[in-house]
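Researcher: Final request for today, and then I'll write up notes for the group meeting. The sequence and the SMILES for zinc ion follow.
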Amino acid sequence: MKSRIAVLETPGQPLVVDEVDLPDPKEGQVRVKLFASGICHSQLHQIHNPATPVPTLLGHEATGVVEAVGQAVTHVKEGDHVIVTWLPRAAKPGDTSPQPIEVPWRGGVARGPVFTWAERTVAPQEYVVKIPRDVPTAVTSIVGCAVMTGCGAAYNTAQVRQGESVVVFGVGGVGLCIVSAAAVLGASPIIAVDLADEKLEFARRFGATVVVNASRTDAVEEVRKLTGGGADYAFDAIGVQETMAQVLQATRPGSFGLNSGGTSVLVGVPQGNADLPMRDLLIGERKYIASLGGSGRPETDFPRYLAWYDEGRLKLDDLVTRRYRLEQINDALRDLQEGRIAGRSIIEY
Ligand SMILES: [Zn+2]
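Model: Predicted protein-zinc ion complex:
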């Protein structure tokens, strides 16, 4: 089956959009005609990393309709609407990552564990989750990574409760999903920290109750003031050296014999290592944990997030601010790189 597809041929260079012959789905695989795909910030790191094996296929969140299924595919059939994601839908102990999908390209093969910057994809059945046919298909394309990662960090990993204080460093697509979930869970206050006033104002729409521009003020000091000593939870949706240390300092210390300190949650992909004040960690008995893909269990998480969307509590229509065609993928990546995307951008097919 023919499909137009974006290929990273050389790290750091623009992607090539080409027509390929997609292989038929093998045992345990499905072919999905895509409606839309999100454009995740983490892929910029992959594109610019000289160690990324090429040619590679990218994109790891999408919606689509199942066109064909291989043998032994049991949970979806032709015609089903699905979300494509990058965590197994219902992992069991001992599960290993499926083999990457190989697509013939220019005499060789291009590979990707999952790829959604394409009109059609072939995916292991573990990476597709069925959704009802009446769910809008464009904005829900970001459920497979941004929503799973952000909402899951607050809901699954941190398990934020009513009345607890939350600060989120970095309010891009994932950070806004953390803010949204914190609001659903009844956190208060919900503090958004970023470097751009427009992004911070935008964060209020998703439930941020206070905003702090870290380019003008000491964000840690400000958070301590706003929370009476530090937040119960501080999320780092960025993962640079500075924010990885700031989240630790922005959580509250515990009191001897009474309670433990607050919890820092690393959500963004770390760019290098952090220099952490370990005395603050010990003396305040704080916790520093990580959340990969929002500790996601797609098959149980996605219905919850789609319900939040349906109830107006997860504003996906606001979160998706830019739409591109596949041919514009390099423009889309440049806009993301240059910080011109509020929320999340998507490709529509
Ligand atoms: Zn992602």
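Model: The chain has a mean pLDDT of 96. Residues 4 and 255 are 59 Å apart (CA to CA).
Researcher: Thanks, that's everything.
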